[in-house]
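Narrative of activities, Objective 1.

The group set out to show that a structural description can be obtained from nothing but a protein's sequence at a throughput compatible with the screening campaign. Below is one input-output pair from the validation batch, recorded exactly as produced.
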Amino acid sequence: MFLASIKKVLAPSLGRIKIIVAETFGLGPAMALSAMIFILLVVIGATFLFIYSAPPDTIIITSGDDDTRFLKNAEKYQKILARNKVKLTILKSEGSLENLKRLADPSFRVDVGFVQTGVAKKQNIDKLLSLGSISYEPLYIFYRSTKPLERLSQFNGKRVAIGEDGTGTHVLALELLAKNGINPGDKTELLEMDDEDAEKSLLEGKIDAVFMMSDSASSQTIRELLRTPGIRLFDFSQADAYSRRIGYLNKIVLPMGSIDFGKNIPEHDVNLISPTVELIARADLHPALSDLLLEAATEVHSRQGLTHKRGEFPAMLEHEYRISPDAARFYKSGKSFLYKYLPFWMASLINRILVIFVPMLLILIPGLKSIPVLYRWRMRLRLLRWYRALLILEEDLAAPVPIETHNELLERLNRIEETVNKLKVPASFADQFFTLRSYMGMVRERLMRKTGLQN
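Output recorded for this entry:
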């Protein structure tokens, strides 16, 4: 009943539109209906793309645990994106490895996350892209000893805290120790502990060394350990070699006195090795949101720090993950013109109009122009077919026409006339149609005169 009512209301309007299209383009009813369907399909398709291509107003980021730099940075991003009316939902995690697993799992709702380089082994990262490196992640190794240790192999047989399972600290510690001949199950006791418990155990003398990353270890923890007598910070004298052998590692220097000028802590330059933290996104992240995230990253991470210069981050450094094309464009030329000078919502709207509706017109205009051409060509062929049939019949009249042949020719002419009279021809072809009918009359008159039967 409802559909019948809609049909009753729309039928007159559609009929009028069809007549307008037919008269405007010189089309028959069927071709006018086809043109209307073509226009409708293009408009519907463009409207769908316009709606579908709108950037989401919410991004989900997987960050880190409480009191970690990952979580604090995510909260800074949240405030910056809110300026553009985009909500950033923050998911806490155990660290880089859990972030990566979430991003790699299509069933898990997340868009971007902070991931330390070096944790991608045995993970499916084909559909993940990097928006760039946003910071160094220095590795700090604190240990108890009366004299400095120069190589990681010297921790063999000791009690070493290597971070909790699933953290970037744990992954990097195992790799570095393995390259120095220390593996789980050997005489070295490798303990999975969080930073707080590891610091307490080291201060109490229950363990000999602890691996900490700058993300999870607070600056207060690092300062406290550096000031504690009997506890040393491991100086990577082989830092250059590590950075050459392990491609995602970098050599950085903690300058002498940078922690405490008055007490000169540290008392000499300390070589550290550091992976970088990358902002990893799924491949389907909207380009406009990619720009917003990189703009936030620039605001948060471009400042000078103990281990990096002003403007060094974010940086387009490619390690395990492919650099996003949208990110590469941002690093090269910044935000696009519209997003640079207009509010985000307005730039998004205008950009979608330019990207979708302008190409729609480029499709519609040539398409609508070609429909009358094709239709005229088709109608011309249909009329020429019967012109040709009349010409053949006229050629047959060139020879004497006996009475038995007359009947055959007359029957052929009648069939042609009957078919032509059934043709549906638009007004634009009226002259050719009536000329064809006049020609039929001439041929009939000649046929009758030829056989001497003209009345």
